[in-house]
Fold:
Amino acid sequence: MKQKHVFAIVAVIAALALAGLACGGGAAPTETPVRATKAPAPTATQAPKPTAKPTQAIAAGELVVVNQFLFKDSTGYFHIVGEVHNDTEKALTDVELTVEVKDKDGQTLLKDSSDSPADTQTFSPLLYTLGPGETSPYDYYFFTEAGEPDQYAVTVTGQHTGEVNRGDLKVENAQLSSDGSGSLYLTGELVNQSDKPVQIHSLAGAVLDKDNSLVAANAYGPASRYLLPAGDANEYDRTPFRVRIDDPGDVATQWATYWDADEVDPIDTYDINLDPQNNYFDTYSSLHLVGNVTNNSDQTLSISLLAGLYADDGIVLDADTWTAPFYLAPGESLPYSFDYFSSLNRNPDEANKASRSTVQVDPYWTSTTSFEFVPLETATSEGTHGGDQVWTFTGEVTNTSDQDLSSLLVVVGVYDGDNLVATNWTSVYPPEGRDTVAAGDTVPYEVTVYLDPNVDGTKFTFQTFVQGNVQP
Structure:
């Protein structure tokens, strides 16, 4: 599916009350205010102007390649972008595209996986499946020092028949922002308008020129893959999303979204409690949203969460995902931290707009597990303050179980009294030359935690959580 909007949009304001606690899988996403502090200004670099001209687009099979465009991004990579349109009456999937790029002397500028010159290369569009009349963007990028592209072409060279049962989605509270360093960020909410659950197989964003031709595109990062039916009381019928797009320069005047999403049968959801505790910018101007997640179900779970950041008017500024490093048994809790808000962390103007956040369970990536694990404890632990509120926690873990372990996970939570203020984790692997951490073995660990530089952490305490993964 595809929607186009100009940059100047009128947002639908979400009237959401702030809340301290909520549950996933049947309760509203949690919301907390965000204390925004000014981050360092990014270094602005103008993206190079588009280069080269496309050769004539060729339709092959039952698909049509349209809107071919080439530009060079701020890191020196060339991008060949455009759209592929399904002009048939059936769904098509596993689409294969073939690209060729030549310099002014007719020499190829492409290389294969062995770094040898190649006349052509194959790749896929950004959406998995296209229903009748649907369009997907594509982005083939490459680096070359052999010359400048002079001719290029993208053709369709393969596809299979697929099936679709499309859901009805729309975008709300969206915007396009720039970090001034070569990246554009398309953020918003994808909202289910169907009366059935919808699974999002793929989501892409793009920017277009004044003639509605695509000039840059990418697939999504953070977003929930499963939306409940329209009108869900706890607003699990919507997901914040973020798409990072390489800036093609001044040619971009509009944005567009594309999705591959179908109505599906309901999936299992679980009683999961979310307890937001703190939010802060660290010394490197990165935002952290921290809290505790508790498995209140009767199943051992792998849990995935999604966070959104919003301005006062409801516009989505950024999104991030978090997957618990531990499998949580019934009744167990673990600290969480969202740390990678790449749009907001690189744009001080966006950071200053942030006023509230939401955290919700991603039902698609939350599931039961049959993997075997053992709870452990640290044998020794020590925290060292390294300045600028960067703390390093070191110690040892002994495998006190009777199982051989393929790896261990160590989570450190930092507390001000009973309140969680920060957390981080690390993986620990067997010593060099060993395949497992055998029963009775002791291995070292080190975890770095970045705290708020504006608070006094001299009275903070910490707690460690350890889990060992049993060797299959």
Summary: Residues 413 and 463 are 5 Å apart (CA to CA). The mean pLDDT is 88.
